[in-house]
Write a structure and sequence with these properties.
Strand order of the largest sheet: 1-2
Number of strands: 2
Structural class: mainly alpha
Largest sheet: 2 strands, antiparallel
Helix content: over 70%
């Protein structure tokens, strides 16, 4: 048995024995599946409602239709809104991390490889951005660019690139001192090839862990921005938007804030558990 197969078997055995990790993976698979098959799973159109069916509690029936999680103030099915809101949350979470991580890893690794003055300029820009709270920075940028799905993704990516850049810089500075990098240079390896083939693959482990936790933070940030009314457009169902619309009815319609709140909590918990497991697996 090769060392790779033996390591894979050990990892699978450890995974089976960790019930919390299995829970996190199951939650992640479930949420992604719901987002993909939202048109099939949603029992109603999330944008269509009836004032006759407004503020119905979970399990109510009207006109032969069953509202499993109840309805909102406009008579729209809450379950359908949550299902479609899953798409927005995951889209914002993964795309903002992918974009922000790409920017940060590129700037951090290239700056460390090239050295001063490029490295100093990038790190000073990072220090300047770190002086602003990330959420307030996101609010300020959205005030300038305006609300919308693409703008939310762009703003969250801009707000988070610094953490990737700093870690990528530190890892690159350690990696370029290794003997195999010197050997690749001696064999005539060009700078782009050294970065792409030899440095980046060896610095990705901690960055993947950071990205897994950043997905959860991005979901919370998008929900918070939508809750404040500066995130995704109000006509697009999002978990934060549902919370914002339900806060005025919290005494009479508890399900309008409880259900999206539970969706956010369980999803973020599952992603964080998987991220913590990835950290244990990838930590040398």
């Amino acid at each position: 048995m090769t060392q790779e197969k033996r390591g894979a078997r050990v990892t699978i055995k450890r995974l089976v024995n960790q019930k919390l990790v299995l829970f996190g993976i199951a939650v992640l698979i479930l949420v992604i599946s719901v987002a993909i098959f939202a048109p099939i799973l949603a029992p109603f159109d999330p944008q269509q409602g009836s004032l006759r069916a407004r503020l119905l509690p979970p399990g109510s029936q009207q006109g032969g239709e069953i509202y499993i999680l109840g309805t909102d103030a406009l008579g729209r099915d809450l379950l359908s809104q949550l299902i479609y809101g899953t798409r927005i949350s995951l889209l914002v979470g993964f795309l903002s991390v992918l974009l922000g991580g790409s920017i940060g890893i590129t700037l951090g690794s290239v700056g460390a490889y090239v050295g001063n003055p490029l490295d100093a300029i990038i790190m000073r820009l990072a220090d300047i951005q770190l002086s602003f709270p990330s959420f307030l920075l996101a609010l300020a940028l959205l005030a300038v660019f305006g609300s919308g799905l693409f703008n939310v993704i762009l703003v969250l990516a801009i707000s988070d690139w610094v953490q990737y850049a700093r870690v990528a810089r530190g890892q690159t500075l350690l990696t370029i001192q290794q003997e195999y990098i010197e050997a690749a240079r001696a064999l005539g390896g060009k700078h782009p090839r050294l970065l792409l083939r030899h440095i980046l693959p060896n610095i990705m482990s901690p960055l993947i862990v950071i990205g897994s936790f950043a997905v959860a933070r991005a979901i919370i940030a998008e929900s918070s921005l939508s809750f404040l009314g500066v995130g995704v457009s109000p006509d697009v169902p999002t978990w934060g938007g549902i919370l914002a619309r339900g806060r005025d009815y919290i005494r009479d319609a508890w399900w309008l804030v409880t259900m999206p709140g539970l969706s956010i909590m369980i999803t973020v918990l599952g992603i964080n558990v998987v991220g913590d497991w990835l950290r244990d697996i990838l930590d040398p």
